UniProtKB/TrEMBL annotation:
Family: Belongs to the TRAFAC class YlqF/YawG GTPase family. MTG1 subfamily.
Organism field: Clostridium aromativorans
Compartments (UniProt record): Cytoplasm
Alphabetical keyword list: Cytoplasm, GTP-binding, Nucleotide-binding
Coiled coil start-end: none
Descriptive protein name: Ribosome biogenesis GTPase A
Entry-linked CDD domains: YlqF
């Protein structure tokens, strides 16, 4: 599948994120819990360097919990905390402060020895499009959306947002882009809507999704669309789903665009249950 993905401002944004790192104590990296590998920017380690980092696996309700736990164990390191969250329901968000305190334990200890009791931690939220950065900031800043004025020692053009967790967030989320180095990455990003449907062949995309579901979640597919059996041919399964859902045009022909939109929307909305597209 050919997907065009060439944001011209990639290099500029990457440079800005690196420059802003010196203003924050911790980086909050967001990924999609369904596609934890594909929703990562491969350069994130290079960009963040030794800066403490927290990885939030968002949309966790749409992924299999046991697989998400395996990912959390796989990704956790001394300078990296991993949390499973859902920014729409607030699930897991209250644990962010605890994990930030663990990551910044040495900093807090140094400041307390200097007699500083009121410690303000600052964070930058980064991630690829569609992983929920804005949702996270809006949830954490609820009721505190007013920005904080310029502070001594902080670049004057930078503004900060107070949150209910006592953490100040940089006002603009850092937008990173995935590198479409493999077919799997391209498909997974497209399945979850991180790449706009308008620039793709959604009928071909749906065939790939149905093929994946037949392989790993056949019972879910049969149950959702009341299919008696699954064919070895993805196209035949799509056509059977179209007939079950009435995606038919005159002459009894399958409306491939309509059934493709239906299947993609139901997958993205969690109607087929929690599904993890990647395993560690």
């Amino acid at each position: 599948m050919t997907i065009n993905w060439f944001p011209g401002h990639m290099a500029k944004t990457r440079k800005e994120i690196k420059e802003n790192l010196k203003l924050v104590d911790v980086v909050i990296e967001m990924r999609d819990a369904r596609i934890i590998r594909s929703s990562k920017n491969p350069d994130i380690e290079d960009i963040c360097g030794s800066k403490p980092r927290m990885i939030l696996l968002n949309k966790s309700d749409l992924a299999e919990e046991n697989i998400t736990k395996l990912w959390m164990e796989y990704l956790s390191k001394d300078s990296i905390s991993v949390l499973s969250v859902n920014c729409n329901t607030d699930r897991g968000l209250k644990n962010i402060k605890t994990e930030v305190n663990k990551l910044l334990k040495e900093k807090h200890s140094r400041m307390k020895k200097k007699g500083i009791s009121k410690i303000i931690d600052r964070a930058m939220v980064v991630g690829i499009p569609n992983v929920g950065k804005s949702s996270l900031i809006n949830k954490l800043a609820k009721g505190r959306i007013a920005k904080i004025g310029d502070k001594p020692g902080v670049t004057k053009s930078k503004q900060w947002i107070k949150t209910k967790l006592g953490i100040e967030l940089m006002d603009t989320p850092g937008i990173l882009w995935p590198k479409l180095e493999s077919e799997e990455t391209r498909l997974n990003l497209a399945f979850t809507g991180a790449i706009k449907d308008e620039i793709m062949d959604i009928e071909e995309l749906t065939l790939n999704l149905v093929e994946f579901l037949c392989r790993y979640y056949p019972d879910r597919l049969k149950a959702r669309y009341k299919l008696d059996r699954l064919s070895e041919m993805p196209l035949e399964n799509v056509e059977n789903i179209a007939r079950k859902r009435g995606a038919i045009v005159s002459g009894g022909r399958v409306d491939y665009n309509r059934v493709s939109v239906l299947i993609l929307d139901e997958f993205r909305g969690g109607k087929l249950g929690p599904i993890s597209l990647e395993r560690p």
